[in-house]
Design a protein that fits this description.
By secondary structure, the chain is of the alpha+beta class. The protein has eight helices and ten strands. A hairpin with a 2-residue loop joins strand 5 and strand 6. Helix 1 packs across helix 3 and helix 2 crosses helix 3.
């Protein structure tokens, strides 16, 4: 019986194709189905291999577009394009979420300012650790999700579906559709508590990303605050000139 290749072997072969110029910068790699058939393996194994290339910054992936070669020079750390809802969905599918804390909180002072809500607003906070991949690995981020306190059933849903975005679960089970996501990024130094969660030294540089998931009325259905260690995460996006 023929042994199916490990995802790392597929990633190494594709990496060689990129660095050698067989797959030029700006070109698209074969589709997941084409790679699955070529390597005679599962689609999951192909996705894991492509994730390895993403970690090196060699490729970017976009739904309905494909896997694009971005550079022939591997980079340290994890690079992820988070410029669309589809990118966030892919991020959720690729990185394991482990719920660590659930708490009812009242946003006051600095927290209210960070969330952009009225002082004294009550939230249900679900705190999770994002790990490097579906099998675990190093922590790449800590996320505090703030939702309506009435969504108590959401906690079990989040635990049962670690690969699904919380906003998607809200849409599916509570009928509240997200129309827009507003994202804000800032640099900071992590506190001792956050450093312990992310397994890094206190004072280490990090990226904090605040996302406000707004419904059609402009009200926040969900707000997330995610902290990424600077050496484990790179936020990238592609800007294109508008027509005309």
């Amino acid at each position: 019986m023929t042994t199916k290749p490990h995802f790392s072997s597929i990633a190494a072969h594709l990496k060689e194709g990129i660095t050698s110029g067989h797959f030029p910068i700006g070109s698209l790699l074969p589709t997941e189905l084409e790679l699955r058939d070529h390597y005679q393996t599962s689609r999951h194994t192909v996705r894991m291999a492509l994730l390895e290339l993403q970690k090196l910054g060699l490729v970017s992936r976009r739904k309905n577009v494909g896997t694009r070669v971005e550079t022939a020079t591997p980079q340290a750390g994890f690079q992820q394009s988070l410029a669309s809802v589809e990118d966030l969905v892919q991020f959720g599918e690729s990185h394991s979420r482990v719920v660590r804390e659930v708490q009812q909180v009242q946003a006051k002072d600095a927290l209210a300012t960070l969330l952009g809500c009225a002082d004294g607003t009550r939230w249900l906070r679900i705190s999770s650790l994002r790990l490097e991949n579906a099998e675990g690995g190093a922590p790449i981020g800590w996320t505090d999700v703030y939702v309506d306190p009435l969504y108590t059933d959401l906690v079990d849903l989040v635990k049962e579906s670690p690969e699904v975005l919380v906003s998607t679960l809200i849409e599916q089970h509570f009928g509240r559709r997200v129309a827009e996501i507003v994202q804000q990024v800032q640099a900071l130094e992590v506190t001792a508590a956050m450093a312990e969660r992310l397994q890094i030294k206190p004072g280490t540089a990090a990226l904090q990303i605040v996302r406000r998931y707004l419904d059609a009325d402009g009200e926040a259905a969900e707000i997330t605050v995610t902290t990424h260690p600077a050496d484990r995460f790179t936020l990238s996006m592609r800007l294109q000139r508008a027509n005309g």
